[in-house]
Specification:
By secondary structure, this protein is mainly beta. It is 6% helix and 29% strand. The chain starts with 8 loop residues before the first strand and ends in a 14-residue tail after the last strand.
Length: 239
């Protein structure tokens, strides 16, 4: 189904009621094949990246960068996995996991090797996830952290006893071929930016979904880009 070429995906519906005739297979790769992608903003071409790239960081947030510096690229700080995480009713849920600071578990036969395995039997890599603050979006404090479930602060843990509650997102494909993230703990909010500012180093947080358009004033929508096409068509931004 997947090719590197961009072919029409007729009536693609992922995680929501909106049918999109998408010409970007990166959406399919992100949501179905779990390939790492850039999450590039529709408005100014900036991309999401963790504020801290190190695997030891679990209490820092997410920001919008407009230049892909060598350190970020080498650390894969510009890449994310949109990983399936179960269902909410009939709607699939996803984790937004950073490729930066990814830790590969020890091989089979060593301690803790059985703590989660992929379909092929190999241990799953440990990736830090975007986690939502329980009081978001009411609080003006930081409302997102990037960290492992057991490492984030208490207010970033699940309300109902499941750590993952605050890390699960509904991903909706928009009519213009982007994707919007809605946290299940705050269904009236979307992934946005502090003060609704879509600019360099803007702090990512939750914002109320009051409507609007995809130009970044309220609705914040991202176009996934595969690593081999990170500079298409936004190469003018990364200078």
């Amino acid at each position: 189904m997947y090719t590197q070429e961009r072919t029409a995906m007729a009536n693609l519906v992922v995680g929501g009621p909106v049918a999109a005739n998408s010409y970007d297979n990166a959406i399919v790769a992100a949501l179905v094949e779990n390939r790492p992608v850039m999450l590039v903003h529709a408005f100014n071409g900036g991309y999401l990246r963790p504020a801290e790239l190190a695997a030891s960081s679990h209490d820092k947030g997410v920001k919008l960068a407009t230049a892909l510096d060598p350190a970020t690229k080498d650390a894969q700080g510009h890449l994310w996995h949109v990983t399936p995480g179960g269902f909410f009713g009939q709607r699939p849920l996803y984790f937004i996991e950073s490729a930066a600071g990814q830790v590969t578990p020890p091989p089979a036969g060593t301690a803790d090797a059985d703590a989660g395995r992929g379909d092929d039997g190999t241990p799953k890599p440990q990736r830090r996830r975007i986690t939502v603050h329980q009081d978001a979006p009411q609080s003006t404090a930081d409302t997102l952290q990037v960290g492992l479930p057991a490492k984030v602060a208490d207010k970033w843990r699940g309300k109902n006893g499941a750590t993952e509650d605050t890390q699960l997102w509904i991903v909706t494909v928009t009519p213009w071929g982007g994707i919007t993230f809605v946290p299940i703990t705050h269904p009236d909010a979307i992934l946005g930016f502090k003060d609704h500012a879509v600019a360099k180093d803007s702090e990512a947080r939750l914002t109320y979904n009051w409507g609007g358009d995809f130009t970044g004033t309220v609705i914040n929508t991202f176009y996934p880009r595969l690593p081999n096409e990170w500079d298409v068509p936004y190469h003018h931004v990364f200078t």
